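One chain shown below:
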Amino acid sequence: MKIAMIGTGYVGLVSGVCFSDFGHEVVCVDKDPQKIEMLTRGEVPIYEPGLDTLMAKNVAAGRLSFTMDLTAALEGAQAVFIAVGTPTRRGDGHADLTYVMAAAEEIATTADHHTVIVTKSTVPVGTNKQVEHVIRKTNPDLDFDVASNPEFLREGAAIDDFMKPDRVVVGVQNERAAAVMAEIYRPLYLRDFPIVTTDLESAEMIKYAANAFLATKITFINEIAALCERVGADVKQVSKGMGMDGRIGNKFLHAGPGYGGSCFPKDTKALARIGQDHAVPMQITETVISVNEEVKRRMVDKLRDLCDGSFNGKTIGILGVTFKPNTDDMRDAPSLTIVPALVGGGAKVRVTDPQGKHEGEALLPGVTWVEDAYKAAHKADLLVILTEWNEFRALDLKKLARKMVSPRLADLRNIYSVKDAKRAGFEAYESIGRSGLEPQVE
């Protein structure tokens, strides 16, 4: 089957590469000439483990190509996926559908045979009906169907998520569209991965509801962590005990400095706005958004306390600035709240991140980038673990402590323990939802 994929951002590129690995012929389309040139050279514009190898394999096999020419991409295509950005619209929290509707119009003026037009982008409920309306208005004679196929890809594990999904959600209006979508996902059906077929609106809602629920779990455990610090409980033990309950599960119960990334902040805001527009306030989701911002501010207070009440004149090393490990994505990362607060407070900040420098240099002005954790710790007053990259999970804590002016560690991902820090010579250690070390008295 031939598939056209409009958009070579994170979702579009990963989906296009994986569909080609299923055996489909996939043409990825983008208006950015630099991005298409880069992809044609075999270079991947995003960091996602394994994506470069899989892309090269399918390009070599002749199943995957890249172009700016939508007409050529649509020629003979049975399905065209819209996988363009839907950023939060300034001022009202809505998802900005400008790129989605522009893609729909271009498809309408270009397609000349029956095609299933599939929305892969995350869009508010009712968007696929709007896409249908735009296409019919632009080209009343076009024979087409509309389908909704939201993505559920975790950055850093996207290929595995695509190839071994918990479920595939497909929203359709008729059997003709359902048959095309079934053929596209046939390799997964043959391996017994669940394919959930719904109406358009339910498919759109599933995406938002799922992400809002996961954001709620993260925010809930972060609130519990704050309480644990006050009452002397250990949030890691609390999370473990909660997660053993099959009704709750152990995923997304890891306390930290708040959620970020390309999905949860955007999707929770959009769901809250959808609820307001339909007079059904999403009160839990609205609270989650508010509490998540408060969590980030609470981290700043925690770091200030470790700096004796002021960042001014302090040297602080930051380990990790991407919103999670195994990605270069900085969107809504906690670092974008925390690091500027340190710089604004007068601190000299050193930053290291295995993949974050490319985006981080523009987003985090006033910091110094260094190669590794040990350089970040050199003559520092405080060291902060913000992102749990594997490189930071087995550090030589004694070596770090010896390099510092005042060995103090803020472990905002709970990688180490109080015992580890004390044994290594840290005079103060703070984590999330656990008791820290008091400064050593000579």
User: Anything to note?
Assistant: Residues 199-442 form a domain with the Rossmann fold fold (CATH 3.40.50.720).
